[in-house]
């Protein structure tokens, strides 16, 4: 349904709930009642109800629940902020309907298109990253019996985290899928191999989004590779095959505006929102952040899905050059089940930006 239509649609069966450090359980009439917390000293002259507990401190090795909901509902908005140095140390996990296996298991920054530990404005339909590190998700996240969202701190230092999760208690439609997101990284990619975004996914569903944090380890243009979707019974050849990396993200001709070079853009459904250039001293390699949300054009499958991207540049004689780049991907999809095949949980060394 169009979001504008939802504004005028009354839902007497639904009720909005919201969890934050000021109301961890999202209880009705339970917001702002803390007498102790990270803001207690600042509110000492004002007392209860005056921003006493606006954030939490997640200790090294600790897991903090952002949401623990029971019954049927839909997570509508997730906002979180913490210092950028923690974006590749905190792992965001989401479990649906009591499944012990997470449907979402992604470094916090990458879930919001911020894979390099440096802020980049991202203005899109379902993800917005705003100054300076306000991370917003509007992915629709239905659940039928319960939802659990957590942050795991794999870093060596405590992380101060502010957050708010808003959901609606409501019935979920029979054909609504569960949101999944998976993270993978090749650092570096083995030459002559493709970077895999998804593999072994079983069930019926549709693919809805890609975020790539791409670090280039060679000179020249790096984005000749194609993005491919292997649907259902596809084997060696894919059903959906693009024409190049920048083409898949809605750009063209190397993202290179004559006289300007790599040029960033951020639109509702796709963008090259981040370009990090060498500084001539300590910073090496060029690094890029790109996203595409398949909202008007979901990639639908009935039984299985595999997705990969080639890494290709140019070499002498007009030949393609397989690249050994640093590629991290986050793939988003909706599926008819609460868990599926997924990679091993990311470790702090695996996530580290080097």
From TrEMBL:
One of its GO terms (molecular function) is hydrolase activity. Gene3D superfamilies: 2.60.120.1390. Keywords: Hydrolase. Residues 27-36 have a biased composition (Gly residues). The keyword Hydrolase applies. InterPro entries: DUF2961. Residues 1-41 are annotated as: Disordered. It comes from the Bacteria. This is Glycoside hydrolase family 172 protein. It comes from Pseudokineococcus basanitobsidens.
